[in-house]
């Protein structure tokens, strides 16, 4: 009888759960969604309940912050998790813990748009900007798991900085797109993108500044890493037909000729990427970075 994996995609506001068989993590099926717990006690209660209900012996948990091994290091929107060692709290459960954007890349490398690639950048634009890098066939961790925090990239010499969000997040994240939409009387970024897709000139012009910021900052990452592809993951993948033409001019303007033909593609798993990646991490266990390659 195959083992069951509990996959958790934990965001700043939502706790999404799915289950998968060990032999087929890509087929993870969603089993529930809740508001993100606001205390450690309520988090552990929900987590252990789901492990018990589904008789899972493996856990893949993606968090909106930094992880090292099975320890949560820095989760700014859920700070009660800082220092929590999941392996110590859940004896007998194999734990694959990691950053949610790195898990999205794990999904795409294992069974999606990055399968077969050796070098890639993944961007997940939501409340903030999540990012991860595949270099030489390995998902980069960096010191303390903190590599590839692309939302903190900056292209403004006079920006004073912040403790909780980087310059690029303030310019081009989902929050920034919401603000751009509201500046022209639309309710949110999703509505703004739909209007731009319908060739609304006002909406297109409202999208230009955040996309120019994104393209300009992204050029530095492309120049540094020379990836085979840039993958847009999560819900934003469905908007790439609108966003790509707006960010490409700024991106290409800041690149040498041999890098300007960079492939920009949508992720295969869309908003489910974090859950699929969590399932693969649960299958691979604590050393999930080594499993996919």
Structural class: alpha/beta
Q: Output the number of helix runs.
A: 10
Q: Largest beta sheet, briefly?
A: 5 strands, mixed
| Tally of discrete structural domains | 2
CATH C-level name of the largest domain: Alpha Beta
Report the average pLDDT across residues. 94
What is the fourth-level CATH superfamily of the largest domain?
A: ATPase, nucleotide binding domain
Number of strands: 12
**Gyration radius, in Å:** 19 Å
Q: Strands across the major sheet, in which order?
A: 3-2-1-4-7
- Helical proportion, percent range: 25-40%
Encode the helix/strand succession as letters: EEEHEEEHEHEEEHHHHEHEHH
CATH topology of the largest domain: Nucleotidyltransferase, domain 5
Low-confidence stretches: none
Shape label: globular
How would you describe this structure in keywords?
293 residues, alpha/beta, Nucleotidyltransferase, domain 5, five-stranded mixed beta sheet, 10 helices, 22% strand
């Amino acid at each position: 009888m195959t083992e069951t994996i509990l996959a958790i995609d934990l965001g700043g506001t939502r706790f999404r759960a799915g289950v998968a068989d060990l032999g087929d993590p890509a087929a993870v099926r969603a089993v529930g969604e809740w508001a993100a717990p606001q205390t450690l006690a309520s988090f552990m209660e929900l987590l252990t309940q789901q492990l018990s209900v589904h008789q899972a012996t493996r856990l893949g948990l993606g968090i909106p912050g930094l992880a090292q091994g099975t320890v949560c290091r820095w989760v700014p929107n859920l700070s009660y998790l800082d220092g929590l060692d999941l392996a110590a709290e859940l004896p007998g459960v194999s734990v694959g813990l990691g950053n949610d954007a790195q898990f999205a890349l794990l999904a795409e490398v294992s069974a999606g748009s990055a399968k077969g690639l050796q070098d890639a950048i993944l961007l997940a634009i939501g409340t903030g900007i999540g990012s991860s890098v595949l270099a030489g066939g390995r998902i980069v961790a960096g010191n303390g798991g903190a590599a590839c925090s692309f939302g903190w990239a900056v292209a403004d010499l006079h920006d004073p900085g912040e403790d909780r969000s980087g310059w690029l997040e303030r310019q081009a994240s989902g929050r920034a797109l919401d603000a751009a939409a509201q500046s022209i009387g639309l309710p949110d970024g999703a509505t703004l993108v739909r209007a731009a897709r319908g060739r609304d000139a006002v909406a297109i012009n409202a999208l230009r500044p955040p996309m120019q910021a994104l393209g300009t900052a992204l050029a530095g990452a492309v120049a540094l890493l020379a990836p085979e592809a840039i993958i847009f993951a999560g819900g934003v993948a469905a908007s790439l037909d609108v966003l790509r033409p707006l960010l490409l001019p700024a991106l290409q303007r800041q690149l040498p000729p041999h890098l300007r033909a960079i492939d920009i593609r949508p992720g295969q798993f869309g908003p489910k990427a974090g859950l699929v990646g969590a399932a693969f991490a649960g299958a691979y266990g604590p050393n999930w970075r080594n499993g996919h390659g």
